[in-house]
């Protein structure tokens, strides 16, 4: 397995891409996306399969403190069929009312790495995400944080792929920084999908850029998706490097359904499945929506090239969407 090449930019002769983006390993990133879809299916009690080349090894349950507290299935562990010391952790995003409440818990708190190592400045991170990352309660005697480090040690993992969608992307980023500080000998490749901002620019952003470098985290972002712009109006920041896609159903629709279409993990995966094998890595065309249908069958969504004009239009369009997290619908 290979690491995403972040340094390579799009060729100058291709006017479609602006700004330059990382070039992604299609097999690797699509496998991570499939792992996230499997994590959603596992939570929803649906049948699912491990990504090609991987075998499910375990599951992960976290404590969500909001709404009185609840134990929730949040992730799946997979091990590589070709290397027993290589694993993937895939984390699903917002589904329950407690998850939504955690998303909206914008007040920050101090990040403390598992190792207890001192950090300066101390990263200030999203309080709701941190509560899930470190929470314990009935049925969850160990935090998500502690469970991950124990699992890695017990299985002798040397290379870890960390991925998540939406809220799961925010948790994946907390874990990526924690691993970089607490277990720097571990090779960690982090790719997130539709991740919201997980901490403040002057502390979290600074620390992430300092520690999570080899390779940098890749964030796959639909420029029409509101969630990567959240929390709104605060000194939060995104981290890593961004890989842009652009898809929507109706440009100026401001409904919750439209916001969900633009955020839905199956739609991200469909667009990427078409874009990543291509050169350059983009997809222009229509595709069947992963959730919504009408009398004619699945709604038809549109994927655009990330030109400067399209990105600018997307940024205007996204400002009109509901400024709140969008829960993942049950398929």
From TrEMBL:
In this chain, the stretch annotated as Disordered covers 1-20
Domain Fungal lipase-type: residue ranges: 89-232
* InterPro entries registered for this protein in UniProt: AB_hydrolase_fold, Fungal_lipase-type, Sec_MonoDiacylglyc_Lipase
Spell out the Polar residues composition-biased ranges.
1-16
Its domain of life reads: Bacteria
Q: Which Pfam families does the protein's record reference?
A: Lipase_3
Quote the PANTHER family the UniProt record gives: ALPHA/BETA-HYDROLASES SUPERFAMILY PROTEIN, FUNGAL LIPASE-LIKE DOMAIN-CONTAINING PROTEIN
Q: What is the protein named?
A: Lipase family protein
Organism field: Corallococcus macrosporus
């Amino acid at each position: 397995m290979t690491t995403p090449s972040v340094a390579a930019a799009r060729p100058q002769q291709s006017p479609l891409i602006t700004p330059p983006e990382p070039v992604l390993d299609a097999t690797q990133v699509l496998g991570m996306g499939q792992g996230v879809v499997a994590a959603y299916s596992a939570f929803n009690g649906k049948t699912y399969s491990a990504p090609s080349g991987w075998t499910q090894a375990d599951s992960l349950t976290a404590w969500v403190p909001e709404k009185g507290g609840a134990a929730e299935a949040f992730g799946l562990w997979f091990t590589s069929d070709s290397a027993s010391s290589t694993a993937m952790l895939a984390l699903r995003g917002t589904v329950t009312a407690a998850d939504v409440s955690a998303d909206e818990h914008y007040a920050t708190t101090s990040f403390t790495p598992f190792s207890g190592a001192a950090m300066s400045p101390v990263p200030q991170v999203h309080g709701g995400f941190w509560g899930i990352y470190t929470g314990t309660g009935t049925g969850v005697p160990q935090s998500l944080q502690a469970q991950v480090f124990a699992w890695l040690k017990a299985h002798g993992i040397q290379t870890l792929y960390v991925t998540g969608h939406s809220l799961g992307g925010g948790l994946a980023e907390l874990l990526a920084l924690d691993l970089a500080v607490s277990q720097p000998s571990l090779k960690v490749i982090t790719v997130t999908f539709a991740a919201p901002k997980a901490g403040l620019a002057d502390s979290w952003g600074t620390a992430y850029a300092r520690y999570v470098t080899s390779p940098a985290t890749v964030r796959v972002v639909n420029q029409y998706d509101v969630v990567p712009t959240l929390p709104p109006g605060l000194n939060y920041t995104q981290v890593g490097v961004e890989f842009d896609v652009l898809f929507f159903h109706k440009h100026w629709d401001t409904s919750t359904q439209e916001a969900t279409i633009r955020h839905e993990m199956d739609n991200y995966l469909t667009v990427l499945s078409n874009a990543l094998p291509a050169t350059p890595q983009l997809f222009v065309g229509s595709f069947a929506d992963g959730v919504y249908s009408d009398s004619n069958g699945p709604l038809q969504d549109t994927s655009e090239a990330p030109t400067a004009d399209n990105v600018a239009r997307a940024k205007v369009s996204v400002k009109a969407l509901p400024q709140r997290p969008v829960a993942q619908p049950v398929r």
